[in-house]
Amino acid sequence: MPRVSPTLEGFRASFRRPSLTLAEITWRWTVGAVGWALVFFWLIEFLNTLPVTRGDETLLSTRQPLLIGRAISHILRGSLNRAVLAALLAAFALSLLWIIIASIGRAATVRALLEYFRRGIAGHSAAETNSAREARPFRSLTGLNFLRLALVLAAMLAFVGAAILAGFASPDSHPRPGLVFIFFLPLAGLICIAWPALNWLLSLAGVFAVRDGEDTLGALSAAVVFFRERPGPVFAVSTWTGLAHLIAFSVATTLVSVPLAFFQIAPWRLVIIGMFLVTLGYFGVVDWLYMARLAGYVCIAEMPDIPVPSMPIPIPPAPERTSIDRDETILSDVPNLAVQA
Predict the structure, then answer these.
(1) Rounded to whole angstroms, how far apart are CA atoms 336 and 75?
(2) Which member of 67, 100, 103, 303 lies 3.0 to 4.6 Å from 59 by CB, making a disulfide possible if both were Cys?
(3) Residues 7, 236 contacting (CB under 8 angstroms)
(4) Is the distance from CB of 237 to CB of 225 less than 8 angstroms?
């Protein structure tokens, strides 16, 4: 029986079930649209609270960079606390929205993938398929997504801490910016390695929260065991989808640079619309690749590799049995018969 390729099965599932990619795009882009709307309205409301005097208007109308800078600094004076407080409230609301929507969306997509592989390929019974539907992993997924947000905050604090530690190498009396950069670069590299790895592990744990109904820590432990037992297929799926993502990024950056070449010729609105459409197309391809990778992981979990049968041990043929002469004296049961002969 041929061995199943999880990478090909993941891409095949994303091709056959475009509704999964549409669901992924829906919840991701919903959070993104809400986030941009919060930023837009926060900026408008913040600018409306800034006091602008007639002197500031006069300085702004001079079109002199120095005078305009002084007017802006006078307008923004004393407003930093309000801006930071509003930004924190918006970030908290957006984080809460992302945790809820991401948990619902991940539960729906993983359940659909489990149903696809169990019914269409793996041949599991309907009872096993319905067991995945009856599981309610919302609490576990909420905990995993909360840990992912905490990981983002920890990474940001780690970057700040790395900058502070590197700054000790350059005192005010003897500034050494080159030495600071040398110390900061490896610390930032370690953070950039640990952060995506832990985030990937937490994302993978969501599959087991839906598949096995595990709690947050149980799903995380199952993901670690899954990766430890099946590193080869997991690396294969991640590598191929990562290469496809890199190709999509290269193509998108090339296509975005094309409208910029016509910025002085075509209307600027048309150029911005073209760049916006290319960016949306790139994000759609990225979500499709993410769904293909997730389908590959589900395929590995549901369809383990077929073990290679061991070669049978050859059994040597039994020696041929020759006829025995019953009249031979050595075989007689009469004592001392051979001696008498």
Answers:
(1) 131
(2) 67
(3) yes
(4) no
- The verdict on residue 331 lying in a domain is no
Q: Can you give the residue range of the structural domain that contains 13?
A: 6-303
pLDDT at 307: 47
Give Cα 12 to chain centroid, integer Å. Answer: 19
Q: Is residue 338 part of a domain?
A: no
Distance of alpha carbon 235 from the chain centroid: 13
pLDDT value at residue 330: 52
Q: What pLDDT is recorded for position 311?
A: 47
- Nearest CA-CA partner of 35 in 108, 104, 81, 102: 102
Q: How many domains does the chain have?
A: 1
Residues 287, 21 contacting (CB under 8 angstroms) = yes
pTM: 0.75
* Length of the chain measured in residues: 341
- Give the HSE-up count for residue 265: Cα atoms under 13 Å, Cβ half-sphere: 5
Write out pLDDT tens, residues 311-332: 455 565 555 555 555 555 554 5
The CA-based angle 182-185-187, given to 5 degrees, is: 115
What pLDDT does residue 324 have?
52
Q: Does any domain span residue 325?
A: no
3-state secondary structure of 164: helix
Question: Is 49 a domain residue?
Answer: yes
Distance in angstroms (rounded) separating the CA atoms of residues 299 and 123 = 13
What is the 8-class DSSP label of residue 329?
G
Residue 117: both structure tokens together: 């592989």
CB 148 within 8 A of CB 199: yes
Other Cβ atoms within 10 Å of 159 Cβ, number? 16
DSSP readout, 111-130?
HHHHHIIIIIII---HHHHH
Give the CA count within 13 Å in the CB-facing half-sphere of 104.
11
